[in-house]
Amino acid sequence: MSFFDYLSARRDHLIELGLEHIQVVALSIAIATTIAVTLGVLVYRRPRQAQIVLAVTGMFLTIPSYALFGLFIPLVGLGWQPTVLALVMYALLPIVRNTITGLQGVDQAVIESAQGMGMGPWRRLFRIELPLAWPVIMAGIRVSTLILIGITAIAAAVNGPGLGQDIFDGLARIGGASALNLVLGGTLGIVALALLFDAAFAGVSRLTTSRGIRD
Amino acid sequence: MTDPSHHSDRSSGGEPMIRLEGLTKRFPGQKELAVDDLTMHIPDGEIIVLVGPSGSGKTTTLRMINRLIEPSSGKIILEGEDVTSIHPDRLRRRMGYVIQQVGLFPHMTIAQNIATVPKMLGWDRKRIAERTDELLTLIRMDPETYRSRYPKELSGGQRQRVGVARALAADPPVILMDEPFSAIDPITRGGLQDEFLRLQALIKKTIVFVTHDIDEAVKMGDRIAILRERSQIAQYDTPEHILTHPVDDFVRDFVGTGAAIRRLSLSAVDSVKWAEWPVAQLPAEVAQVREVLGRSGKSAVLLLDEERRPLRWVDGRALESSDRLSVEPGAIALPTVLPTTTLHSALDEMLKSGYGSVIVADAGGHYQGVVDLETVLKAVHDMREEVVVPAQDWTPEEVVASP
User: Fold this and answer.
1) Which of B341, B200, B195 minimizes the C-alpha distance to B267?
2) Interface predicted TM-score (ipTM)
3) Low-confidence ranges of chain A (pLDDT < 50)
4) Is A32:A86 a contact under the CB 8 Å cutoff?
5) Stretch 113-132 of chain A: residues touching chain B, C-beta under 8 Å
């Protein structure tokens, strides 16, 4: 069976896996963004705490993904839960780092004038600092998303959702009839998703950034 | 050029707008006090300039007034109310704040920037929109054109004007300005200063203005406080007094050598005694003009037309070569200044034209008098003796040849 015949025969299956893949990445990124931006806001004015946060989240990224997924099995079992948990941990660093960088990069004069006009800390954060840091934070989210799309494939090892299932299936019966097609289908699917997400991010980033600070 | 009338000494009876009582600031970890027991009264509706060398604590002092820096001790009284311990955001919404780097919000439009404080105060949308347009008009930026632009689309000078408009938005009684024009190129700066004085003549706010530039202080201030280290007031007085009667060597050194010239930009042409100059009004006979010239002992007669508008200078030689005045060739009667022009500008005109004198004419171009170099020198001398030179009721003696 040629690869193209395989694709048309397994279309529905691939689309289903692809949608699962998207869902698990989107969910993990949403959770990670909430945690990471909150952490960034908490520490960006405190250099020592910022360093600790960056060191810890940086360490998460160095844990081999295969091992991390496995480590969660005794705690939360198989399937979605260990997958999302591990993915969130991987996504933190780029977002935290960019949140801190973005917030620290806001022009001091802008903050002083906001303060001088009687804008309280919360209003300052939501009206001024976060909107100005937003393009940088967004870039972090984009990097994290691309990383997760790749790593999610490994989640199949713990029965996680997504295109990784086909890759693992294929690898398990290497030499068999459709082994190569399975691996190729999963892999190319992931590449296609990455391109799709990247394009979507470019659009969203533009739409959510004020015209006044766009390049 | 600046209208010097804002320098006139307004008597400020009653409660000052701001009272600083024993204001002191010690920054943690520093031995020296940044501001040491500063007491100062800031009268309503005037521009008070805090000026001093760097490190004199003038910016710290300004930032203590809106409590961006909390005083270590002392009191801030605003309109009779002790605001030393009210919520700082409430205090700051009653004081406009303009800084050197402007600090416009780059992600907001000009209109949104100006609307910042009104929005926090909960004004409705219609009122905010009207106020924004009103302020843009006030700073001479067309609302239609600029309302929806972003700060990056404006020049440095325009940004600073928007910064001022933003500070004025909710009509606060007080505006604090920290070196607002220092980052602007010198040519634009002069224009911005003039425009701000024009604005202040309309809005009559109480303005505390920090600068390190004594020229700017003299130009902008109704009163100047010269500060030395730890915000000690060396002298707090009108610009005229500070220039003419510096209390000590510190003030004298700080005011510097250009003081005599600076004084000239504080007085208008109509505040000094004008030179006596022979004039002749058309229609006039040559013989009469010749007689006027002879009696005056000057080198030329100023010829006026039937409407008493200066025509030209006529000297003895020109009178000899012809006996009809109307076609007489003579030097064109320039330069002309208004009575409200400053002596500094008048002197400038004199030097530029090379005549050694300028003609004073009113807005309609009618002849008022002549100011010459001697007049200016005498004015400088008089200022040293007596600070306020009262405007003269005196009109220069003139001879009008009868037809």
Assistant:
1) B341
2) 0.86
3) none
4) no
5) 113-120, 123, 128, 131-132
